[in-house]
Amino acid sequence: MVDCLHVKQTGAAQGANTIPMTMATKRSYDDGCAAAHALDLIGERWALLIVRELLLGPKRFTALRAGLPSISPNVLTQRLNELDTAQVLQRRKLPPPASAWVYELTDWGKALEPIVLQLAHWGVRSPAFQRGAPLGVDALMLSFKAMFNPAAASHGNIHLTIELHFGDEVFSARVDGKQLHINRGQAVKPAAILSADPQTLLYLAYGKFDIDETVQTGRFSYTGERSALVSFFSVFALPEPAAQQAAGATSRLTHP
Fold first, then answer.
1. pTM for the full model?
2. Strand partners, 166
3. Which residues pair with 92 in a beta bridge?
4. Taking the chain, what is the end-to-end CA distance rounded to the nearest angstrom?
5. For 107-130, how does the pLDDT look when each residue is reduced to its tens digit (9 = 90+)?
6. What is the pLDDT of residues 131-157, one digit of tens each?
7. What is the tally of helices (H) and strands (E) in the chain?
8. How far apart are CA 97 and CA 187, in angstroms?
9. Which one of 119, 164, 167, 204 has the lowest number of neighbouring Cβ atoms within 10 Å?
10. Can you tell me the distance from the alpha carbon of 256 to that of 35, in angstroms, rounded to the nearest whole number?
């Protein structure tokens, strides 16, 4: 690809028009390919998951730790500093009365969203991927974006808004034909409001568990239109595992 052509300017060709191609990093592929440079910036362990945690809005350090419970404070600090240096994210102080420091993606960092979503869609097809494994709240909401089936939404002429509660965290999800919009915060005129833990919602959306039976477990509750929830869950589907497509393997989740 053209981006991977490494051109070294010499003599009169060097100067003001020369594009800087290096930055201070602990390790580098030392490769002229732009994809290799991208990996220099976001290829370290945890870096892209930090980006994932910020795609739906700014977070404090403690909130990032909650979304990535296996990362140590020192490693998180190091990755945040590296991503800040790379201009993928920035640190900002919220205005009063909050007056807290948060981390947020730059406009350039936000452009990583389709890459993260496509990577998730590619990764879920791995035969080694454990479907139904625990997910954090942001990871689950972004999985909805990655596994959204616009054909199903369009065919069903689905236009609705759902408000989702995970403890103190609230999201709105709006299906508008072939598009899905997910935002942090309360929804405007939702057809239904649900409350669940991420794991239960994972099985409702991808395992197609029965809503009424799940309500009886006490792990899921809702107000509003039940039919809206049925329509909402119908627009998500996991692709077949790559090595099992020919065998017609199921993409539905089963009880763990």
1. 0.83
2. 169
3. 102
4. 43
5. 999 999 999 999 999 999 999 999
6. 889 999 999 999 999 999 999 999 989
7. 11, 7
8. 24
9. 167
10. 38
